[in-house]
Amino acid sequence: MSHNPRREPGLRPDEVARVAASLVRETPAPAENRRWRDLFELACWISERAAMSKRVILSPPTAHIVAHQLSKCHEKPTRDEVALMICRRGEGGRCDDPCYECRGKANIVVAAYGCRLDGPRQK
Fold this sequence. Notes:
Layout lengths: L12 H10 L16 H13 L8 H16 L3 H8 L13 H14 L10
Helix pairs in contact: 4-5
């Protein structure tokens, strides 16, 4: 029997709220004996191991840092959400779909600051 049985993908909204409330928002301190200098090096190491189909086993402090960074990335808006924030086409205010010009501006913003890769948030 596997120690990691298959489960349905994703979390229910109440589970997401519970996990988000339990996350510590302050930046965790890395372990003293770590093998990586910065987050970019850690990301490269994890990526290389995944590309070779090898496991990545993280120490608890490193896993905490990775979870913290992943939760920060999830808080960022998508490109279309940024475009809708800055879009002012028409007299009635904001558009339902972002216009071409505002998508271009949003591309510049997300290139500089990053964005979430999944679809828009459900309302």
